[in-house]
Amino acid sequence: MAELLTNVLCSNCKAAGLELETESSAMCRYCGTVNQIKGVICPHCEAINPLGAETCEACHQSLIRRCQNCNTPNWAGAELCIRCQAPLDTISALGARYRTDTAGRLRAQRHDAASIKAKEAVDSERRMAEFNAIEQRRQQHLNQATETRNGQQRLWIAVLIVLGFVVIAAVVIGLALVATH
Question: Is the pLDDT of residue 157 over 90?
Answer without folding.
Answer: yes
